[in-house]
Amino acid sequence: RKEVEQDPGPFNVPEGATVAFNCTYSNSASQSFFWYRQDCRKEPKLLMSVYSSGNEDGRFTAQLNRASQYISLLIRDSKLSDSATYLCVVNPGGGADGLTFGKGTHLIIQP
Amino acid sequence: GAVVSQHPSWVICKSGTSVKIECRSLDFQATTMFWYRQFPKQSLMLMATSNEGSKATYEQGVEKDKFLINHASLTLSTLTVTSAHPEDSSFYICSAIRDSYRAGYTFGSGTRLTVV
Fold it and tell me: What is the pLDDT of residue B23?
């Protein structure tokens, strides 16, 4: 079983739509979780950390379900500039450890 | 803040030669830096953890004699791909933690290596 699994997509959605991404992780001891965004041939950039209580940043909402080992990202009112690959990322050790990345979900926002 | 500078951004080299990639934390001290590799349409894979003043810790399957890591100062880590082969062609990215792991990690802009 892969450590971090995501639906690779691509997700093709019209501008203004709401889109949701899901991710599951295998290491139940994982302590910290993130969503990163990666544009084509670029480095990943932190979109948001994911907290147990769920958190929101503008149009983006992240949820964590530790019991199900499941993480989600919701994007509301999608913009053309949201087109990118969204990476589900887990810090398995909970401390200053290297990150474990999912393969990413490719999102294409259509005008 | 929390900028990580990585050079070169791309390099083409001949088989058998060595390539050095530098990663610098510009506005903070990074006691720990990480090196990742990403093949096309694959996830970033952690190669090694680089700690200032000590030997790097390599992930399983990564040859330490082929991928030499040096972290001689709190702001600089280097990755040298020795005797490069075409299968080493990949996107190499460094990353550093600034203060709290919960704040996320800052990534360099990556180095696209092509070995011909």
Answer: 95
Task: Give residue-wise pLDDT tens across range A14-33.
Answer: 999 999 999 999 999 888 89
If we measure between CA atoms, which residue out of B116, B8, B102 comes closest to residue A90?
A: B102
- For B42-57, give one letter per residue: b (16+ CB within 10 A) or e: ebbbbbbbbbbeeebb
- State how far Cα B45 lies from the chain centre: 11
Q: Nearest residue of B to residue A50 by CA position?
A: B102
- Mean pLDDT of all residues in B75-82: 95
Query: Which of A43, A91, A101 is the mutation pick for testing B, counting most B CBs within 10 A?
Result: A43
Q: Is B107 on the interface with A (CB under 8 A)?
A: yes
Q: What tokens does B73 get?
A: 């100062």
Higher pLDDT, B40 or B113: B113
